[in-house]
Amino acid sequence: MGVTRVSAICLLVVSLSILSSNLIAGHDYVVGDSKGWNWGFNGANWVKGKKFKAGDILVFRYNPAAHYVVKVNIDGYKSCSVVRDGLVYLSGNDRVKLTKGTNYFICTNSNYCAVGGMKLFVMAK
């Protein structure tokens, strides 16, 4: 093989590797955009127009003295409570990888979920 052909093949392999890693890598979504995970958050509005995939990352930004994030099941989402073992995040800058299917999140501090709208469900393909 000539040097030009070997170079072309190497360039093709590198290009395909970069393309495939971009397709596999998840996308980061900041929950609530610039307002973050806060009182008055409207999850139904926030998810509109977004196409989530398993492996995408939800970034929850909030004041950890006032809020937190709990990953719950559908019963916990509906009741705004942790009805089984919920995964609790407390840092104020949490990165949560989405799993395939529906992912549910709430803030159970005071009545922030039920009254303040701090609940979210995301369908990931």
Short description:
This protein has 125 residues and is of the alpha+beta class.
Please give a structural write-up.
This protein is of the alpha+beta class. It has one domain (27-124): Cupredoxins -  blue copper proteins (Immunoglobulin-like), CATH 2.60.40.420. The protein is built from three helices and seven strands. It has helices at 3-24, 43-47, 74-79; strands spanning 28-30, 57-61, 69-72, 87-89, 93-97, 101-106, 119-124. Strands 4-3-6-7 form a four-stranded antiparallel β-sheet. It has a three-stranded mixed β-sheet with strand order 1-2-5, with no helix packed on it. Helix 2 links the parallel strand 1 and strand 2 (57-61). The longest helix is centred in the N-terminal third of the chain and has 22 residues, at 3-24. The termini are far apart.
Mean pLDDT: 85
Helix content percent band: 25-40%
| CA-CA gap between termini | 43 Å
* Helix-strand makeup class: alpha+beta
The CATH superfamily title = Cupredoxins -  blue copper proteins
Query: How many structurally independent domains?
Result: 1
Q: Do you know the CATH architecture? A: Sandwich
Report Rg.
19 Å
Order of helices and strands: HEHEEHEEEE
CATH topology: Immunoglobulin-like
Q: Could you give the order of strands across the largest sheet?
A: 4-3-6-7
Low-pLDDT parts are 10-22
Largest sheet: 4 strands, antiparallel
**What is the CATH level 1 assignment?**
Mainly Beta
Count of helix runs? 3
Work out the number of β strands. Answer: 7
Q: Rough shape?
A: globular
Strand content: 25-35%
Signal peptide: 1-26
Domain Phytocyanin: 27-125
InterPro entries: Cupredoxin, Phytocyanin-like, Phytocyanin_dom
Organism: Platanthera zijinensis
